[in-house]
Amino acid sequence: MNVENDAKQAIIRKYDDEAKELDTPAWLALGNDVRVPERGSAHYFVARKVSMALELCGNQISDNSTVLEIGCSFGQMTALLGKKFANITAVDISPRSVQIAEKRLQSYGISHVHFVIDDAEFLSSIPNNSIDVVFSFSTLRFCPRPEKALSAIKDKLRPGGIAIIDFPNRYSPWHALVKRLMGIQPHIHDRLFSPIEAVNLFLNSGLAVEQVKCFLFTSRRLPAFLLPLFIPIDLVLERIPPFPKLAGIIMIKGVKR
Fold first, then answer.
1. Nearest to 48 by CA among 235, 199, 240
2. Under a CB-based contact definition with an 8 Å cutoff, are residues 160 and 255 in contact?
3. Is residue 68 within a helix (H) or strand (E), and if so which, with residue range?
4. Taking each helix axis from N to C terminus, what angle separates 146-156 and 195-205, rounded to the nearest 10 degrees?
5. Most buried of the four, 31, 34, 188, 242, by CB within 10 Å?
6. If you write DSSP's letter for every residue of 155-217 in order, what string do you get?
């Protein structure tokens, strides 16, 4: 238990420190856009994740669906979800991340997102059986007990509710090799998953798996001048077997029966 708590405290410190550095009027104004100011490849990466999540939901959701985003960080995905849904709760374990995300969205006119400090493995602030759809991007990979987070998500979903969660693919060359060759240090307490590992997390929690999608060969760290080359690479390789097995992201749609 102490090891798990130490891991969470280290993650909180990391993101609290980053948010503290960014929390300035200049950062809020940077880019003149609600999106977190990042390179073009990062904006593309974030937009692809959110659009794929919405595509997997299909017509099972509406603009009035009750939405929970787990691991909102600085609001990268929240900014896009906030344009789609009228009833969103966004949670993160880092208090300063929650603060800066709320500040940025409100400064660009998105004031209907309810931000909460919470732990993905407990979601204590969220009533059971109250959520229509849960989105979680690049968050369960950092949880010491991702199976506990999936169980908490199931508890919060209404019967028929949807969970859309992504994981880094351990078979992706980017995660398995390229990052190390580029000298990129591993994120603290990170974990990679195979598709079957990610699916089993859902099944063991009691969530029925409806769809599994492997996509994105483009990294958010890609130099901006290479993005026009990689966008068509994504569009082609994501559709030609067996290349999707090597994509960077595994996204799963689960349903509470």
1. 235
2. yes
3. strand 66-70
4. 50
5. 34
6. HHEEEEEEEEEEEEBTT-HIIIIIHHHTTPPPPTT---B-HHHHHHHHHHHTPEEEEEEEE--
Name the burial class of residue 200, with classes exposed (0-12), middle (13-18) and buried (19+) by CB atoms within 10 angstroms of its CB.
Answer: middle
Q: Is 211 exposed, middle or buried (0-12, 13-18, 19+ CB in 10 A)?
A: middle
What is the CATH classification number for the domain harbouring 189? Answer: 3.40.50.150
What secondary structure letter does DSSP report for 90?
A: E
- pLDDT tens over the chain, length 257 residues: 688 889 999 999 999 999 999 999 999 999 999 999 999 999 999 999 999 999 999 999 999 999 999 999 999 999 999 999 999 999 999 999 999 999 999 999 999 999 999 999 999 999 999 999 999 999 999 999 999 999 999 999 999 999 999 999 999 999 888 887 787 877 778 899 999 999 999 999 999 999 999 999 999 999 999 999 999 999 999 999 999 999 999 999 999 99
By residue range, what is the domain housing residue 158? 2-255
Tally of structural domains, the chain:
1
Q: Which of 65, 64, 228, 198 is nearest to 138 (CA)?
A: 198
**What letter represents residue 254's amino acid?**
G
- pTM (predicted TM-score): 0.96
Phi and psi based region of residue 113 (left: phi greater than 0; alpha: psi -120 to 50; beta: remaining)? beta
Which pair of structure tokens corresponds to residue 235? 């569009």
- The per-residue DSSP string of 99-146 comes to HHHHHHHHHTT---EEEEE--TTT-TTS-TT-EEEEEE-S-GGG-S-H
Of residues 203, 204, 255, 230, the one with CA closest to residue 56: 255
Residue 240 DSSP class: S
